[in-house]
Amino acid sequence: MLASVVNAIVTFSRAHQELAYGVIFIVAFAEALPVFGAFVPGDAVILAISALVPTGALRLGPLIVAATVGAVLGDGLSFWLGHHYRRSIVSRWPFSRHPAVVARGETFLQRHGGKSVFIARFTPGVRAIVPLLAGVLEMPSGRFYAMNVLSAAAWGPAHILAGAAIGATLVVLGAVAGRLAMLAAVLLVLLAAFVWGMRLAIRRLPPLMTLAQQRLWVWAQRRDSWLRRQLLSILDPARRELPGLALLGVLLGASLWLFFGVLQDVLAGDPLVRANEAVFHFLQTLRTVWVDRAMVAVTELGDLTVVAAVTFAAILWLLWRRNWRAMAHVIAAVAAASLFTLLMKVTLRVPRPYAVSSGWGIFAFPSGHSAANAALYGFLAVVVSWEVGPRWRVIVAALVTLFVGAIAFSRVYLGAHWLSDVLAGIAFGTAWAAFLGIAYLRRDPQPVGAGGLCAAAGLALLVTGAVHIGQRHAADDRLYAPRTHVTRVAASQWWHEAWSMLPARRVDLAGEIGAPLTLQWAGTPAALAAQLAPDGWKAPVPWSIRSALAWLTPHPSLASLPVLPHLENGRPEVLVLTRAAPGSAGEARLVLRLWRSDLQVAFPDGRTVSVLVGTVDEEHLERPAWFLTTTRELPDYDAPRDRLAAGLPDRRLVERGPRRRGAGWDGGVLLGRPALSGSPGD
Length: 682
Known about the structure:
Helices cover 58% and strands 10% of the residues. The protein is an alpha+beta fold.
């Protein structure tokens, strides 16, 4: 759902400039409002929309103006509310329910004075309360508005230019920049949502756990029994580690649930296994030289050489601190994760998408990179978070999640692992880190020196990572180079029997089985479009702000409605054509979708073309509300296929076995090729 929202925002923003500038203004304005602004993911939205600037869809200047003006007016409204209502406003809901936030804002103001307005603009947690309290505490209006304008003038361009820089990088990447921008925006928003969720959890869970601890403590004191004595020993109020242990317990349970869920799907061949291939193909369509180089560098940061160096640096620091327990736990984190993944690979023997290793490393499930890095950095995050405040805990959790997630993503992007491999690897590594964290925190842990430990591990990561990348990058570029799994057959062989090698039904990105693939075309998309044009088939209206809004009109024509895109095994459509359905009076249309396959046919004249697989269905207009129009696909694939056959003079109808048939499909597949190509057997 979150990805769909981002997709809609970016699509509309690219097509309609006024909407994009308005969204930027509203987000910047809302982010400055008291209390409400803390729940607005403004940074992520602004960066995502600003990434469209280098594509030419939006202009840089108006975006900067919209963000700056929105920020100034939002803070100005907050200051006016505080100046007008004084102390009475902070005694009302919702401020009365968050006295700690108000107290933190007042302390911030008293510490920094007039500069607090400028500093708060860049400080999460107090950004949405400081302007209001500045009015409550009667800060001079001139001083406030001076700092307000100055801070907005710095904040607006900083965010817009950062987003534009991201977009400029993607533009250089070539023809897939649009999909890469969308993917980057989705990942950015997901990261922002994670950080927001972690910040909320760290802020809200400890007080709730403390309250639950106190109530259970009182309940256990009322009677004397074995269970109550055990609870008294665990729930001692003097033990401040209980909330952290509870959070780690939840993380342990969730990670184990995910690991065994993925394992079950892999063993049973559930939809996740089909999704593996779909996600793999989807990411291969995004591959470019520059992104490949970046992903190779990221995956090299997760190699065993770098993991061993970071582990050794952490061990040396803990030895110097004489913290033997923490040192033993660090060793156990990496050693057990590496050993477990090796045993699982040897047992299950799941092959990789690409052969990038030798020996037992040729097997994929689960990902050793993901498991070892999640276990190492996850446990280090636990021991560091024990000694720092809530804000730093959020930062540490976000950095570890981003780093481990980037390594896992690079493995899937480069074809070294399937999606299920990295999900299982991260799940096991996280569960193991949480288990070690619980074992470590239960026994009054000795301080590790959080700052020194982070410095030692970070320095080892930077130095060893830089050296390792410098030594391995050229070779790894060749190792992880994209490869095509293509099967080549003679045209006559495809015409008579090899057509059955291709899948019978479409597989979506989630691994679910979709509509039957009722057409195979041995030619180019342009050749098919030209051959079908005399029969009334034509390209649908492209997606734009106008065509998208047509879905919200009460009586649109089918010709004004674009066709919803579909993926087949992760691949985008290479051709979409439509024509009016016979006898429908404009209320229905036939839709042809074609995707590229891994099968190529060689004709006697030396031409080699990829076979395109497709489906033809009939869409009917539906109006669930007066302001909304939708389309419904009829579960009849035989009649649309037979109607398409009328436009293909050189065709053949073949049938799959009875087990392949289903509702609305007789198992027939239409084979076609360009009319002038000659017989496939020639």
